[in-house]
Amino acid sequence: MLDNLRSGKWLLVTTENGASVLEFFVDETGNNAANVLVVGGKIGGSLRELMALQEAVCDALRSMNFAYIVGQPRKEWHRFLSKFGFEQHGKDFIKRLT
Fold first, then answer.
1. Which long-range contacts (C-beta less than 8 Å, at least 24 apart) are formed by 77-86?
2. What is the pTM of this model?
3. Taking the CB of residue 69, how many other CB atoms lie within 10 A of it?
4. N or C: which end of the chain has fewer CB within 10 A?
């Protein structure tokens, strides 16, 4: 994990009460994308903090020509993520950046 963070393949995003790890990859069509590997933190606050921060992360990824963010959240997060522009495609939730 540390090697991937040091190399820039993964990005650690933190808030006061939570953290998330993003993995950068190029998909089969050549698009730059970010996969949400893990989200965690204090119950009752970390997810809202991370979702507020994700707008800044999305802006940064857009400026680096990333096409989307993808993740496979737990079922109880589906409706919450939909409010932030994520669309369900099978098990994946995708937020388009372009």
1. 77/47, 80/47, 80/51, 84/51, 84/54
2. 0.85
3. 21
4. C
